[in-house]
Every structure is written in structure tokens, then in C-alpha cells.
Design brief:
The structure holds two protein chains of two kinds. By secondary structure, chain A is mainly α. Chain A is built from nine helices and no strands. Chain B has one domain: Rossmann fold (3-Layer(aba) Sandwich). The chains are: A mainly alpha, B alpha/beta.
Amino acid sequence: MIDLALITSAAPQLLRGVLVTLQIAFCGSLLGFFGGTLLGIAQTGSSKLLRFLVTMYVTIIRGTPMLLQIMFFFLMLPNLGIHIAPLPTAIIAIGLNSSAYISQIVRSGITSVSQGQIEAATTLGLSRYDITRYIVLPQALRIVLPALGNEFITLIKDSSLASTIGVLELYKRGEIFVSQSYNALGVYTLVGLLYLLITSVVSLLFLKLEHSYRKKHARN
Amino acid sequence: MLEIKKLTKCFGSQKILNEITLAVKPGEIAFLLGPSGVGKSTLLRVLNNLETIDEGTLLLDGAPLKPHDVGMVFQQFNLFDHMTVETNITFSLIKAAGKTPQEAQLIAHDLLTRYGLSDKALLYPSHLSGGQKQRLAIARSLAMKPRVICLDEPTSALDPMLTNYVAQTIQDLAKDGYVVLVASHDIGLLNKLGCTIYLMKTKGEIAQIAKSSDFEKNPANYPLIKKFIEGHQE
């Protein structure tokens, strides 16, 4: 199924695919994290209009397949006069999709922070912005760190959907190589192992981050 | 002098505080005594701008009370667990009081030394004992230079053995010239403080007022306070 010859012949193409996958994952995660954090804050805020808009956004994104969303952006952006390559289109679609899920994770984190923290900060004269930015968010993100890790891992795997609009990421590179090598099982197993390697590294990084937080705040 | 005049606070149709009137001078301790749910904590929250008022006036030396005039030490301390002991103090000094990091650090250092926490400056609150957390909460509050200090159930989250220490700390705050308000139903703490007792009863009213020294001499003159204390000591 997999032998050294297959690995050496597939490696150059698949590694190029890994780089593109990492690019989608990194940029998509950044967009998802910052977008999701802002949406999460808006959803716990006092503006009814903002809460409604975020709820609508989350409902639409969560209620439709990501594959469809990628296709939608791919077809819609040129109609709006925005002509960008498939890779940034995929990053935008995947990042926006992730932001909806992350907004719900962040929202749950914010509501988990004790009201007492906000009250203490209020009595010390801190502004609403400072309370959210420096008191609530750091504690909320610490609470939801495991859930954020899961979301980023999901995003890495979902980046394979970018192949549908022609992005030459890891899965697409594998698909192309299958047509050259006629060893579908071997190539897809290699592709799977590479995804597993990437997600395992990310998983390990998040575990380390959680561990360092726990160690920092654990009682003597 | 802190003056609270005819203060009324309602939650829905329920009156939590009903025309509360009291005056506390700098260096004086007002001990708000009473069972749970009579509005003691709500009164402190109102002074700290955490609740709005429906009617009444709050004055400090004749001028309307401002939020930064009042400091609060919460029952559960509410320290910022993700910040070090020192940053718990310096953060609001920098962000809210406009101090430079160097100025804030000097103020924090003085307060931490005063409250015996200077060797804990770089630790996180989770590494402190209950008593140390309370001292940090007091230090954090004092850093903002309030003139009124409110302590909500200051002994409830602590080992009863620490009551003497808490009482001494509260007395020291009064000696330093702060207007001190304590909301508690801890008779052990009350017995150790030279204060004015305000007994609060249901419907958020002050039922009886007594100087603790007068009450000690003639408890029979203050039957409601006597009854409450006897009820809690049984």
C-alpha cells in the first residue's frame, strides 16, 4: 500500500499541499478567532440590534453546509466585482464559517466569568472597554481554551473543502497524485497521515497552553 | 461626612430599602446588622454605584457622592485571578486613575508592605490564603483613594479564627480617617468593633441605632438589637 518509492515520489507534491493547508488553517483561524471574538462580545452586549444580527449570522452559517458557503463565496464575489483567487476566497469562507462557531464558544466563556469580576472592576472605576478587554476576555478565553482547540482542529480538516474550488491544498494534491500513480489507497493513506500529524501538533500545542495556564494559577 | 437621606430602592414592586437615613463621620464605623435579605448588601451596592436608587440623596461633605469616593471589599473578594497580586492593584491605577506604571508600582509596593503581602507581589491570587486575599482586596480598594470603604460580610469567607484580625483591620481603616460601612450578621465581629450599630429589619428599614459602647453598658435600652444578637448567639 505505502512503500518508500511512493513516499519519495509523492512527498514534493503533498508537502506543497501541506503548506497551502497550513496557510488556510492559519489565516482562517485568525479570521475566525478575531471575528468570532467580536461577534461573541456583541452577542453578550446590551444592543438588541447587534444581538439579533449576530444570532441571524450564526443561524445562517450553522444551518448551511460549509461546502455550499465556499461555493457561494466563489460564485458571489466576482458578481460583486471582487475578483480574488480561489485561495483567499476559501480562507474568507472558512474563516467566516469558523467565526460563527467561535462566537458561540466565546459567548459561553464570557457568560461563565463571574459577575463579581465585572462589579469589582466597576467599583475600581474601569471603563466598559477596559473591563471587557482586560478583565472578562482573558478569563473567558482561558475557560474556553479546550473548545477553541477543537474548533481549530475542525478547521484544519475542513480546509480540504477548499479543493472544490480548485485550491491545491493537501487533499487536492493527493487527488492529483492518485491520477498519476494509480495507487489511490496508498496516496490517500499518506494524505490522512499528514492531516493527522498537523492536527496532533496543534492538539499538543493547545494541551501545553492549557497546562501552562493551570500551572500558573494552581494553588501551592 | 457621608449622609444617606431617605434612600429608597425597589426591585420590581418590592421595596428593598425603605427611606434609609444615616450619617457616618470620617473615622466612624457603621455596622449594618441584620438577617440575610434585609438590604444590607444592597445599601453598600447602591453606595458603590452597582445599583441605581429610586429615591433619596447620597452626600459626602454636602456634595453628591461620586463613584470614585467609595471603595468596596466584596464578600468573595472578587480579585482578578488572571493578574498577579501586584497587577491587581496597579491595573486600575494605570487604567482608571491615569498613573504611570512606575507611580502605580510605588503605590502598590507601599500598600502591599502595609498589608504584609510584599513577598507575594508576583504570585497569583490563587496562591493566597483567605485572609491574604481579603487584605489584597482592601489594598486594591484603598489604592484608588476612596474616602468611604464598604465591607460586605468581611468574615463570611474566612476562618472564624481570623475575626480578630479582620476587626483590627477595620478599626485601622477608621483610625486612618475613612468612613467605614460594614454589612454583616457576624456577632463575633460586632463584639470586637467600636462602632455604631444600625439594625436593619425586613422591608429594608433601620429598626434601631446604638453606639456599641452604649449597647454594651445598657443592652436593655436596645431591645431589638439585644433580641437579634441573642437569637444569633443561641
